[in-house]
Write the C-alpha cells for this entry.
Amino acid sequence: MSIQSLLKKMEEQKRSREDIELINKAYDFSLRAHQGQKRKSGEPYIIHPLTTAYRIAEMRLDSKTIAAAFLHDVLEDYPEKEKELKKEFGEEISFLVEGVTKLNKIKYRGAERSAESLRKMFLAIGEDIRIVLLKLTDRLHNVETLQYLPPEKQKRIAQETMDIYAPLAYRLGMENLSGELEDLCFPFVYPREHEWLVGITRQRRDKWSRLIQKMKPILAEELMREKIKFLSINSRVKHYYSIYKKLHKFDMDIAKITDLVAMRVIVPSVDDCYAALGVVHKLWPPVPGKIKDYIALPKPNGYQSLHTTVFTKGDGLVEIQMRTPEMHEEAEYGIAAHWAYAEQKREKRKLYAHNISSFLDQKKFSWLRQIREWQKEVKNPDEFLESLKIDFFQSRIFVLSPKGDVVDLPEGSTPVDFAFHIHTDIGQSAQGAKVNNKMVPLHHQLKTGDMVEILTQKGKKPSSDWLKFVKSSEARRKISSILKKMEENKNFAKQSGENMEIKLSVRNRVGMLRDISSVFARQKNSIKNISMETKNRIHPVVVIQTSFKNRRELEKIMVKLKEIKGVEEAEYKISH
Ligand code: MN
C-alpha cells in the first residue's frame, strides 16, 4: 500500500484538485505525527492510516473522511495535537477524528448485555455514519495484523470484533466486510473449530471452483444467444465463519451446505436479473424451494439479489446469484452505497457517478434520520427497526465510566443521574464531577461519549436542589427517598427524640439490668431513668426513659435490646 495507489484511485474516481491536495496534506500530517512510530508488525505506522484511507476511498466516501482516516489515530496517540489538527483541517475533519478517538475508549467486557449496549452506543456516537465507517475500516486493518499481537490481546480483540463490529457491519448492510471481519477473527476465537472446518471444506471448495469454471462459458454463451447483456460472471467463496454458523443448523453435516462456492452473475438491470434466472433454469433445472427472490423481498439489512440452486448433470448442486451493479455495491458498502445511489437518482446521474461526498457533506448530518428514510424502503421495516431499536436510543445518551463501561441514561441526564445509576452510595455522597477530565457542576448536562467521573465525600448528603435537574426516574426516586428519611430524622429529633420511653417485657434473671444498660452504653446513649415493674405481671416490665438523636439510633438500640437473653418483648413510645 502506498500513497501513489491511493492518489491513482482518487484520480480514477475523478475527485477534484482540492480533494487531492487535502489528501496529500493529511498524509503529510499523519506521516509527521507518527514519525518513528512502528506497528507491532514492525512496519512503519503510516501503513495503518494509509490502508484505512484507501478503503474509505474505495467506499467512495467524501474526501474529508479520507483525510480523517489518515488522522484517525493522531489524537489517540498525541492528544496535545488537538489544536493544531483543528487549525490545519477545520471543524468537520476534527469532529470525525474526535469521534473515532471516543469510540476507542469503549471497552468490551464480554457480557451479552454489554455487547448490545455497545452496539447501541456505537450507533449513537456515530451521529455521523462516517465515524462508524472509519472505525470499521480501522478495525479491519487491525484484525488483518492480529498475528503480531500477544495472544491475550489477540483473543480479546478477535472476540470483540466478532461480537460488536461484525454484527454492526452486517446491520449496516456491509455483508462482505462483516464476513471478512469474522473470518479474520475465527481462528483466534475458535482455533480448533477453524482448523477442522478448513480441513473438511478444502476438497469441496476446489471441486466446486473447478465446476463453476466449467459452467461459466456455458452460461455466458447462452446469455449472449438470448441477447441478455451481462457485465461479469464470477464466483464467490462463502466465508468460513458463515459456513460454521450455518453448519449448526444442519447437525454439522458439511454435505448439506450447497453454497460453499456460488456463481455470481452481474447484469445491468433488475429485468436482466429475472431474464438471466430464466436462462439459468433452461440450462440447469432448479432445486425446488431454493429460489430466493431478495429483489422483491430484500433482507432486513437491505441485501438484494436473486438466488437459485440448480442441479448440474452429475456434479451436484450449485448456487447461482444474479444482481445488478448497484446491488453489488450495496452488498459491499452497505448503507454508504445506498446513499450514493439515492443521491444519484435524485440528481438523475449516471450509474457509478462518484457522488456520495455531496450527500454526506452536510454538516451535523444526522444519519439516524437517514436510516429511517432507508428503512421505509426496506420491505420488512419491523424487523429492521427492532434490530436497531431507534426509538429507544434516540432519547438515550451513552456515557462512559472511567473504566470504560457504558452507561445509558435518558437525554439531558447529569452527573448525579450517572452517580445514582452506578450506586446509591456514590449518588448520595456525590460532591463534584469531572467530564472528560474537566470539573463540571453537578447539574451539567451529559452528552453521548462523555467520560464521567464522580468525586465523593463521605457523609455528604443529597440536596433537594438535585430534584430540580435530575432526568432519570432512578435518581429521582433514590434522592426523594433519602431526603424523606433525612426529614423524618429531623422531625423525629425535634418532636419526639427528646423523650422516649422504652418498655421491655422480660424473664428476670441475674444481670438483666446490667445487660440492658450496657446496650445503651455501647451505643453511647445515656439512660435518664430505668425501673422495673413487677406487680401483677407474668413477666416483669423494664421501663427506660431516654432520648435519641435520630430514628436510626433508636432502631439500632431496639434490635440490640431484643437480642438480650430473657427479653420477650420490646416497644417504645414518645413520652410527654
Ligand atoms: Mn487505528
Observations:
- The first strand starts at residue 232 and ends at 237.
- The pocket of manganese (II) ion is lined by residues 48, 72-73, 138 (CB under 6 Å).
- The chain has four domains: 3-174, 192-332, 395-489, 497-574.
- Residues 121 and 442 are 23 Å apart (CA to CA).
